[in-house]
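Input.
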Amino acid sequence: MLFPFGELQAQTDSLRQVGVSIIKNFFDTYTAKDYRPYNPMKSESVEADTLRQVWRVVVNESFASQKLTPEVLRSIRKSVKNLLPLEMKDWELELLSNKGKRLEDLIPNELRDGKKDESRLWNKTDHTGRPWVQNVSRPYKISRGLDGRHLFIWPSHGIYYKEGIWKWQRPALYCSREDLLTQSFVYPFLFPMLENAGAVVGCPRERDIQPLMTLVDNDASAGVNGKYRETSARHATAWKTPEEVKGFKAPEAEMTDTVFPFSEGTCRMAQTQSDTEDVSRVEWIPNIPEAGKYAVYVSYSSLPQSVDDAHYSVFHRGGRTDFLVNQQMGGGTWTYLGTFDFAPGTSEQGKVVLTNESRHRGVVTADAVRFGGGMSQHVRGGAATTSCKPRFLEAARYHNAFSGIPNSLVNTSEGTNDYADDLRTRGRSLNFLSGSSAFQPGIDGAGIPFELSLALHTDAGVRNDLSVYGSLSISTTTCPDGTEFFPSGVSRMASLDFSTLLLNNLSEDLTKKFGVNWTRRESWDRNYAETRIPDVPSAILELLSHQNFTDMRYAHDPHFKFWAARSIYKTILRTVAAMHGKHNSVIQPLPPQQFSALFSPNEEEIILNWQPQPDEEEPSAMPQAYVLYTSVNGSGFDNGKNIGHATEYRFTPEADKLYAFRVTAVNEGGESFPSETLTAYKSPKPGAPRVLLVNNFTRLSGPKYVQNTDSLGFLLDKDYGVPYLYNTSFCGRQQNFSPHLSVHSNAGESGDELIGMVFGGNTFDYPLRHAAYVLGEGNRYKEFSFCSTSTDAFCRLHSLSDYRVIDWICGQQHDSPQNLVPAPIFNEKTEAKLSSYLAGGGSLLLSGNYLGRDASQNEVHREFAENKLKYVPGGTLPTDSLSSIQGLGTEFHLRQVPDRNHYKPQSLDILNPAGEGTFTPLIYNNGRSAAIAHKPRSGGQVVALGFPIEAVATDKEKSLLLRSLIHFLAQP
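Output.
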């Protein structure tokens, strides 16, 4: 029987309406595990194409921004099919984003089951020449990392000028600003990881936190900054000034928008020479204002005859490090070589040397060399002064102007809007520097082959349930003019791939590492300057919310910074490799652990031992070899020695030389961060007693916090935490502790009084420092021999009977709730081993500002402290209420402020004597007991200090104190 057409149409329309309703309800109630977008996921439209039997569903941005994989889309289609009426189960489901892109096309190449989208790959496009900079002193090769790759990375914002004042771009919340916070991830962690993998990293902001700067230039006469010197062998080519070639000249006063340093000077040039005996040289000998670490930047001009192997040598406290610089690219800007230790003043051991030696015919050019980051130099508009901040805190607009980026790319608003200028110049400087390279063909520029860019930000948002707000990423796949491809021909969808993988991997890595649901938010495809302007694949990563207390609790912790940076590095590595068709990348190892530097029984050898540290999530990260770095008598560390795959190294020391050691692990992917620094010293006096220095200070942490119904925030004055090496991210003390979170509230509001301060952290070199304090300047006091070990290696030692004294260095070790990683002063193994040592007649020195408090937290530790170490906790004292420690016939002043190389404890412990034969040898200036000494007749002597040695103000005072205590304990 035939149905009338109208009745059939009505039945079809009814089924279609049912199907639309079912599908719309499915997408509007859909959720994805561990994904929390700002707006709910839903469909924007559902249409039925009855002729083709296709459902066309357009989803909103939140839905399209989730983690998409082939399996996710299969699951969605299967679920929808199971819900539809029987008559419609075979219809296809077409899924489109709100921008009209198929959801299948939003899946990154690396997550696809089958064929990749070739338009997102570099294919045959690549830089085949020498890299911009190559460290030829590096004692290992990288074959499956980022060797020779060029990346452009920057940390968000910086201080800028507006309407007569200098302003920060983001608010002061929870003791930091985004302008400061993102640097604390990028400079100490992400940049070293990328460079350890072999990458050359460019940045539109100053990367060196050193506020001092020395410029040595051919256009400046010898003076306070140092000396510029040219030398030529008898038959060598002389240096000359090329005609009509501009070079650098230091501004005579503050900089304005009409001062262009790289256009107002000259450079020098010499023909190349292959005979090493006939080379000409240029030397830049700086007058270093203070001892310390300084970034070294060179400059030159790129000419048609420039060679790709200009040979620079940096002479520093650790020796000489050699570089090859490709002068065919990067002329007219600052070229970063590395950061090195320099002694103060002028010295032949502190300089940069360039020769005209080359394997090619051509020319090398020489211009200014810069040591250190320096202070702000720009005066803007109606401002009476510069920002008066270190250059590394300023916005990219000002650093780019100082770095030779054309004014048209820096001063884009003709002086009317520095904020907009800053946003634009980050990407525009990348395009200028990368122009004319393989990745930006047909565009005038400096020719540096930058192929990927990343801007690291934090953003705003709160969770009232105190959960993690999480991470978000941004890319731009279509420009406002409709452009969907880069000048190289690569699809801008490559940016979406990179952005999405950054977000996916970060959320997974942090969740696994810290046992917290690190929230994945959206992967936006939007029109942002930092992802629209760069002409290479680019992303913005909004790492966390600086407005959310829980996010900031993690953000302040160095462990979190390290692992977040490692996740970003891994994604960059794999993205770059995949875009070149490679899928065998190797992750650089983690630092070696269980490190010891001990004497052989007859003191003829020093035996170094360590163990690899596995990365449970990355099987490829295992070491294939190790590099040993050595320093002698307080010099800087050398360039390292590749000692192969063994985990033990022996060598014969010279007497009266203080050795320092650190070890890194290497593989085909690159080099790890270094181990802690250990030391050994062989006294020239026969039979000198041995002292074992144990580095028990392993703690890294964020600041102390309060979290209750009345208050929420950070207490910097109680404990600013323990940074890795140093921290520059604090803006000021928190002022508003309201627990009531809202995007419009002032919760977390903080001051700005700490901006520019460098807070010293854990430098992991305290055995070396303690040995140097006892030996004194020039190793004057030679009564003892020293060796050292980490705590984890200490527990593996078979015997301690060879050591007259053990110096148990605790520093700021403290098992505190604010730590993401536990840091107890003692554990069951160390207590048992120290108890046995004392029972055998050994002598023990302990120092640290939490010895009392950690004992108070645990009954077992308290009994150990009282019965074996002979002290009982007596409370704490704020350091700001104290000025000195008195005893041993003198006064020891306390450090009042931290700096880059020294932490300052914010409180010290009172330790009271326990038991017979125990007394107080040192008191605080308020009369409370600062230390105990236990000297029984039968041995087992103990001195315990309620403060770390590092709390004492000067090296001279530390030396006197520590030497006196070691002598006391070493007496029979």
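The CA atoms of residues 170 and 212 lie 26 Å apart.
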